[in-house]
Structure formats: C-alpha cells, structure tokens
Design goal:
alpha+beta; NADH Oxidase; 8 helices; oxidoreductase activity; NAD(P)H_nitroreductase; NAD
C-alpha cells in the first residue's frame, strides 16, 4: 500500500467485508499485487507457510463441484437444488482465493504461530484488494474443513484452509457494526503501589 500514513489508516478504518460482488475482478497484474502484499505478512521463522489457490473463470466451477461434494457427503439424500446452491457459492465473485496453511511440522515455530502468520497474510490480502478498489469477503464454512474439499485441493493431513476469499467489484457492503474499543481493550498503564 502506498499513500500517506493518514490514507493508510483511513483504509484500515474503512475496511469492511463485501456481501455481493459483480465483474470485474482484479486483472492479472492487480491479483499479483494483492498476493504480493499478502506475503509481506509477519512470519515468525520466515517459514512462509501460506499457499494460495486461485479460482477464476471456469476454474471456479471446480471449487463449486468440491463444495457440492461436501454437501453430498454430509447429506447423501441432498436434492439437486441444494447441491446447485453449494456449487453457486464458488461463483459469487469473479476471483476466489483459497488460502492454505502448509505448516512446517517439527519446527521450533509451533503450528499455531504458522497458522497465525497465514491469517495475517489473509488480512493483508483483504486490505490490498480494498486499496485497489475491490470488495472482498473472507469465508470458511463447512467446505473449508471437509475431507472431500481438502482432498480435492490436494491438501496433506497437516494442512488447513484458513480462508476462502471472494474478490470482485463490490455491490453491497456488510452492515454489521464494529466492536467498540470499550468492549475489547483493557489498559494496564500504572504500576500498583
């Protein structure tokens, strides 16, 4: 991100998830910028445990098929309409990025810290997409954790899907209120006598 410190802080303060998307999504150059920003996240041990699987165009249909397979596996009697609804989730934005944590097992940096680094990469991805004028939403849901989807993405047992990011032209923004600082901040400034 470039800009004055105030512009960067304003971007952070305005950040919100998109609810609905339309074309266009990011161009190839813009997507490269978004992913390049994502990998600048803090990474204890410089392990780079993040992997990005990008679904665009008809490639989103492959993700949709995996999402439908998850519903079918969990609910063998699922009707065609329910399976189609699951498939359509992958088509809600022009660009979909699955963010995967591929931890280095046995390293002195615990897996939980590696997962936190990947989550930080997800936050950078969102902010970079917003900075370029795109809406973005971070989703997980049952599909992110399901064996059928994990196998379809070629994940190892120790890998995890940290998020599925939908990126496109924002049509509607989340109306959910933000937390107030009073609800989430505790100050401990003075030493006890």
């Amino acid at each position: 991100m470039s800009g004055t410190p105030n512009e960067v802080v304003d971007l952070l303060l305005r950040r919100a998830s998109a609810l609905k998307f339309a074309e266009p999504g990011p161009s190839g150059t813009q997507l490269e910028q978004i992913l390049s920003a994502a990998v600048t996240a803090a990474d204890h041990g410089r392990l780079r445990p993040w992997r990005f699987i990008v679904f665009e165009g008809a490639g989103r249909e492959r993700l949709g098929d995996l999402m439908a397979a998850q519903v079918q596996a969990d609910k063998p009697g699922a009707e065609a309409a329910e399976l189609e609804k699951a498939r359509e989730k992958a088509l809600r934005a022009p660009t979909v990025v699955a963010l995967v944590c591929k931890p280095v097992i046995g390293h002195k940096v615990p897996v939980v810290e590696q997962q936190a680094a990947v989550a930080a990469a997800g936050a950078h991805l969102m902010l970079a997409a917003n900075a370029l004028g795109f809406g973005v939403a971070w989703k997980t849901g049952a599909a992110a954790y399901h064996p059928a989807v994990r196998a379809g993405l070629g994940l190892a047992d120790e890998d995890s899907v940290v998020g599925i990011f939908y990126i496109g032209t924002e049509q509607q923004r989340s109306p959910l209120p933000r937390a107030t600082l009073e609800d989430v901040v505790e100050y401990q400034r003075d030493r006890a006598a």
